[in-house]
Amino acid sequence: MNRLLRPAVFFDRDGVLNIDDGYVHKPEDLRWNEGAIAAVKAVNDAGWYAFVVTNQAGVAHGRYSEKHVDIFHRHMDRELAGQGAHIDEYVYCPFHPDAKLGAYRKESPNRKPQPGMILELLARWPVDAAKSFLVGDKQSDLLAAKAASIGSYLYLGGDLHRLIMEGLGAHAAPD
Question: Would you say the pTM of this structure is higher than 0.90?
């Protein structure tokens, strides 16, 4: 194995890291799921990459702009940093085939269940894909992980930190 490669956890955002109240995009509306910050910190402490891969159809539907997505992610970064945690990179897909805004109305290889966002990160970062996994709250998340040939876990609520610790243990086994 190439020792420069590190495994990664790919987090879906809305419904996994934060409570999904529908089109969440304002910093003041950020409410973390139970154990979410501790989960990101556990990934960091294990020496793994922590990525966010998120569909953001609200951009396509004109509910908010890409600038709002970036502001929201910077706010998440500040809150994570306050607890000694960080996300290595956020990737989002603003496109939707039924978008209200024509510029965003298209099929995209990055829109989950397609694996594009994961594949882009795998191409940009020295990731050990065989030990990596995604945590999502929808079947489209799990299908994207499968298409990218990484493991996955379905998160349906509860303590995200506990789920991540199980995943880190299961995927960290020696070659």
Answer: yes
